[in-house]
Specification:
Number of domains: 1
Mean pLDDT: 97
Structural class: alpha/beta
CATH class: Alpha Beta
Number of strands: 9
CATH topology: Rossmann fold
Helix content: 25-40%
Radius of gyration: 18 Å
Strand order of the largest sheet: 1-2-3-5-4-6-7-8-9
Low-confidence stretches: none
Shape: globular
Strand content: 15-25%
Largest sheet: 9 strands, mixed
Number of helices: 11
Distance between the termini: 39 Å
Order of helices and strands: HHEEEEHEHEHEHHHHEHEH
CATH superfamily: Alpha/Beta hydrolase fold, catalytic domain
Length: 322
């Protein structure tokens, strides 16, 4: 598979101007205030699993507009609380699955909250359980163009708010030290983690792995893979809607949200990634607001990136900051 994007030396300095709307910060402040005002507290129920070294809990917390969002909480059995926590977000189309599918963070001594992505969970994996009760106007298949006519209606407004409220929720749990919370995720989950980084205060670390949802306008014109192709298909039908569509997307661009982040961050990028092109990842990394940041580069990988090697790097990075 050939490399198709900029050479690494150019990627390392690639920091494009990506316009953020004048009301960007006000938009997000109002969105989060509205959802927090809806109130509610997480409901945490122990679940029985075959695991003997990890305790599992079914969590339901209030997300966007107070909508119930599901998650799994895993903690080391018998651990002394409170623990540092990792809030993790999932890849595109997947759900929270089963509670024993992701054991790494809890096995490493963390409280691990894995958030269900609303409306997703039926493309791969073991399923999701969080509906998205909000309708949208015309859209193409998938989630990328749902509500794309207006940022107030856009699908990822709800998802990003869910992510912030997941951090809010985990900080209230007795198993968790609220001053030691990190966010993580791969692909879509990496893009959601970047959103949380830009919208949450006082995170100890951010771990976006081959992040999606960055530098939309370049991605849409550079790769022929889904999910970015969902936007192409929409625009091929809704001719002349480019300006309106990319204005909506600018409120949700990981490269814009990254500029507002202050927590230490470890990114990853794969130079043969046709799903999340390298320049889109570097656009977010180079614009990331904290000086304590690093990026792992996988020179001969597609969207799978570093996989277990990246998790190991994340574990080391986080250990040094908690």
């Amino acid at each position: 598979m050939p490399r198709f994007d900029l050479p690494l030396a150019e990627l390392e300095t690639y920091s494009p101007t990506i316009a953020a709307p004048d009301d960007f910060d006000d938009f997000w402040a109002a969105t989060l205030a509205e959802s927090r005002a809806a109130g509610g507290a997480p409901v945490v129920v122990p679940v029985e699993t075959p695991l003997t070294t990890i305790e599992a809990y079914d969590v339901t917390f209030p997300g966007f507009g107070g909508d119930p969002v599901k998650a799994w909480l895993l903690v080391p059995a018998g651990a002394r609380h409170p623990l540092p926590a990792v809030v993790e977000f999932n890849g595109y189309g997947g759900g929270r699955g089963l509670p024993f599918e992701r054991l790494g963070w809890a096995s490493a001594g963390y409280a691990h909250l894995f958030m269900d992505t609303r409306g997703q969970g039926s493309m791969w994996g073991a399923g999701g359980e969080t509906p998205d009760p909000h309708g949208t106007g015309p859209s193409s298949s998938g989630f990328m163009t749902r509500g794309i006519e207006d940022p107030a209606d856009y699908y990822y407004r709800r998802v990003f708010t869910d992510a912030v409220r997941a951090v809010d929720a985990v900080r209230t749990l007795p198993q968790v030290d609220p001053a030691r919370v990190a966010v993580a995720g791969g692909s879509q989950g990496g893009g959601i983690a970047l959103a949380a980084a830009g919208l949450c205060d006082d995170l100890v670390a951010v771990l976006p792995d081959v992040p999606f949802l960055c530098h939309f306008e370049r991605a849409v014109g550079l790769t022929d893979r889904d999910p970015y192709q969902e936007v192409v298909r929409y625009l091929s039908v809704h001719r002349g809607a480019d300006e309106r569509v990319f204005r909506t997307l600018s409120y949700f661009d990981g490269a814009n949200l990254a500029t507002r982040a202050t927590a230490p961050a470890l990114f990853s990028v794969a130079l043969m990634d046709f799903t999340c092109p390298p320049s889109t990842v570097f656009a977010a990394f180079n614009r990331y607001g904290a000086t304590d940041k690093a990026i792992e580069v996988y020179t001969h990988n597609d969207h799978e990136g570093g996989q277990a090697y990246q998790w190991q790097a994340q574990a080391r990075f986080l250990r040094d900051r908690v």
